[in-house]
Amino acid sequence: MRRPLLHLLTLLVLLGGSARAGLEGAMTRVLYATGLAKQSGFRVSDFSADGVLKPGETVVLRFTFSSGVAYRLIVAGCEDCTDLDAALYDEKGKLLARDKDPGAVAVIEKTPEWTGTYFLKITMQKSAPAGAHYFVQYVYD
């Protein structure tokens, strides 16, 4: 039932809002998406992370997630980003979910089967040569 909402959410994030320079633009995209998720009953986490990645660069973030809780991780790049990818791995390095769509916003949904450590790998596939800002936040049900 939430899959159509996810597609709508992604479309609205890509089309909605004005592009702002740097980190503010990436934050605006994520905050818009978390606001829509909140209207659907999700709670917004206190966690957020940001940084700058050049094309081809990667950063890995560590999380502790609880079993049976639905999580939606939202990663967005600024207007200098044209393709940002994200993938979620368990503590053994097994790929659990990934964003497959090209674009400046990556959304991953996962309900862990066990409580434990998970890793979010963010890769800046395409951006301005000097790089682009990214911003991450997650919501949970």
- Broad structural category: alpha+beta
The count of β-strands is: 8
Assigned CATH architecture: Sandwich
Q: What's the CATH topology name?
A: Jelly Rolls
| Shape call | globular
Q: First CA to last CA: what distance?
A: 14 Å
Spatial strand sequence of the major β-sheet: 1-8-3-6
Task: Give an overview of the whole structure.
The protein is of the alpha+beta class. The chain has helices at 2-15, 22-39, and strands spanning 43-53, 58-65, 71-77, 81-90, 95-98, 105-110, 116-127, 132-140. Helix content is 23%, strand content 48%. Helix 1 runs antiparallel to helix 2. It is globular and about 40 Å long. Residues 1-20 have low confidence and may be disordered.
List the helices and strands and how they pair.
Layout: H1 2-15, H2 22-39, E1 43-53, E2 58-65, E3 71-77, E4 81-90, E5 95-98, E6 105-110, E7 116-127, E8 132-140
Antiparallel strand pairs: 1-8, 2-7, 3-6, 3-8, 4-5, 4-7
Helix pairs in contact: 1-2
